[in-house]
Specification:
The protein has one domain: Ribonuclease H-like superfamily/Ribonuclease H (Nucleotidyltransferase, domain 5, 2-Layer Sandwich), CATH 3.30.420. The chain starts with 11 loop residues before the first strand and ends in a 21-residue tail after the last helix. The chain has a 5-stranded mixed β-sheet, sandwiched between helices. The protein is α/β, with parallel strands linked by helices. About 35% of the residues lie in helices and about 15% in strands. It is found in: Cytoplasm.
């Protein structure tokens, strides 16, 4: 069972990101503050759940959370500041956009930079341990997937509606054949054989 709180604070915010390992599209983060009486037996790390379950959980989380927010950081910025900093920036933006200030922040993973002067704790595999981080992982993943499905319409040859920008064989073959788009991360090694990108 996932736990509700890590700290003794009432307004504890969980944050997580999606899309760190992708070749295209944004890195997306969410921040969620859940109420004290929140319960859900299905809620888990988004990677453990089917797409259908994630889609069902999203409105439930949005309806029951005290506050939630989602933020994208786009490829241009990722290329400028690197993916780790972009992931942290996305989390900061999501926390900043919450309608209330959290008293404590729990973060999935092991890297974070202090946000304002709010105390925080990084938790390895936090999305499998705490409900608010799991909820954030689901919002980040579903909002990012929606974004990738939308840009798929523009460039269907990369099949982003299926691979969501991850480095599948099909995605890499499409990069070989069609080159890259404005949605690709130019600082990433987009092809295994790539040493420099012909721009």
């Amino acid at each position: 069972m996932l736990k509700l709180n890590h700290s003794h604070f009432t307004l504890e915010c969980g944050t997580d990101e999606a899309g760190r390992g992708c070749l295209s599209g944004p890195v997306t983060a969410a921040a969620v503050i859940l109420p004290k009486n929140f319960k859900n037996s299905i809620l888990n790390d988004s990677k453990q759940l089917s797409e259908k379950k994630r889609e069902l959980l999203r409105p439930y989380i949005e309806e029951h959370a005290l506050a939630f927010s989602v933020a994208h950081v786009f490829p241009e910025k990722i290329d400028e500041i690197n993916i780790l900093n972009a992931s942290i920036l996305a989390m900061h933006k999501a926390i900043e956009n919450l309608k209330m200030n959290p008293e404590f922040i729990i973060v999935d993973g092991n890297r974070f930079k202090p946000f304002l002067n709010i105390p925080h704790e990084t938790i390895i595999k936090g999305d499998c341990k705490f409900l608010s981080i799991a909820a954030a992982s689901i919002l980040a993943k579903t909002y990012r997937d929606d974004y990738m499905k939308a840009i798929h319409q523009e460039f269907p040859m990369y099949n982003w509606k299926q691979n969501k920008g991850y480095p599948t064989k099909e995605h890499r073959n499409a990069i070989r054949e069609f080159g890259i788009t404005e949605y690709h991360r130019k600082s990433f090694r987009l092809l295994p054989e790539q040493f420099k990108l012909e721009l």
